[in-house]
Amino acid sequence: MTDLRIEVVDDVVALGRAAADHVSGFLAGREASTVVPATGETPLGLYAELASRQGAGELYPTGVTIVQLDEYLGVAPEDRRSLFGWMHRTVLGPLGIADDGVLRLPVDGDAAACAIFDRTLDDRGGIDLAILGLGDNGHLGFNEPASNVASPTRVVELTSTTIEANARYWGSTDDVPTRAVTLGLGPLLRARTIVLLVAGERKRGIVHRALEGPVGEDVPASFLREAGAEVTVIVDRAAWGAS
Ligand code: F6R
Known about the structure:
- By secondary structure, this protein is an alpha/beta fold.
- The chain has eight helices and nine strands.
- Helix content is 34%, strand content 18%.
- The strands form two sheets. The chain has a six-stranded parallel beta sheet with strand order 1-9-8-5-2-3.
- Strand 2, helix 2 (44-55) and strand 3 (64-66) form a beta-alpha-beta unit.
- The model has no long low-confidence stretch (mean pLDDT 97).
């Protein structure tokens, strides 16, 4: 049974701080941990706060191995739309983590390479901490609606909802690749600790649907309620509503 806690905070700034408290507490005293950091806008405050705490000598992350959550299919790191590039700019660079230590997804989506990725992750003991955002359609990573709870790392077609949501990162829907490689729900939901960050009014319907509606493939984030992990949802007031 999932141990799921919901923490409602005032705004997106408070969300970054609350998430940083959670992640710092998680990393404190650990000699090694395997961490999956989502890209996207919601965790940006968290990563900036972690970097600032590290700069102030309040955080000494040691032995952190980063695992890539998702990438647009065929998009090279030099491409402005690369999610690896986004992770480099917002997580790896600011925290002084070397790019070459990251367990990276096969950007070409080769099925055998995806299977090797999952095996390598398993052999290394799986994920200790996954930091996730919530898609407008309830996706986790790029596990879009109708993703099987046990789905492996694989190529996916992005839905029109996700393409429209991602257009705000890159300019227009025409700039958003239509396919991606994602860490599967199977390995992701085997993480021992998961932090889901949700901000903004646009997520209000989907966050309640994920946490209170039926559990199933229509809303992949609903599977968090059945994961074996310790799950913390940190959500701002704009997303949660007044209740
Ligand atoms: C990004 C990712 C996505 C985002 C989600 C929310 O690596 O995996 O699942 O976390 O689409 O994005 P934002 O935070 O920009 O609303």
